[in-house]
Specification:
The protein is mostly helical and about 150 residues long. It has nine helices and no strands. The longest helix has 18 residues, at about 105-125. It is elongated and about 60 Å long.
Amino acid sequence: MAFKEPRILSYEEVRVRLMRWCSLQDRSCFDATKKAKGLGLNENQTAELLADLESMKFLDDKRFAESYVSGYTRIKKWGKYKLVNGLRQHGIASSTYQEVLDALEIDEYKEALLSLLKKKKRLNPSASREQLIRYALQKGYEQDVIFQCLDSK
């Protein structure tokens, strides 16, 4: 069985693919760099393409961080520590993610933790305080917020 040679993509073809890929959902510059290099662009072409995509508003790390934080706090109910680790893995600068995390509503944040703890307690009525604390820590919440929520329950 003969294998086909992988087709080499031109700069313009990679540009169109990345524009389509970035329009599906918010992407970080780090992810776009990996994708561009995977499609066969060199360093100079990748840097040029990223600058082009940023100028056309296809890429924006702050917008990516905002959507990442809002999605993972609402859907998966992650705490700040877990969010920070996820944003670091996507190559987001610390100043950017600190700004986004500072804008996070503390009441919504605590409400998400409370609903998480109530759900855990409902699923396992014999769960002790220590088990709830451990569970909340695994979700990335800070100790002081966990204690505030447990004491207010």
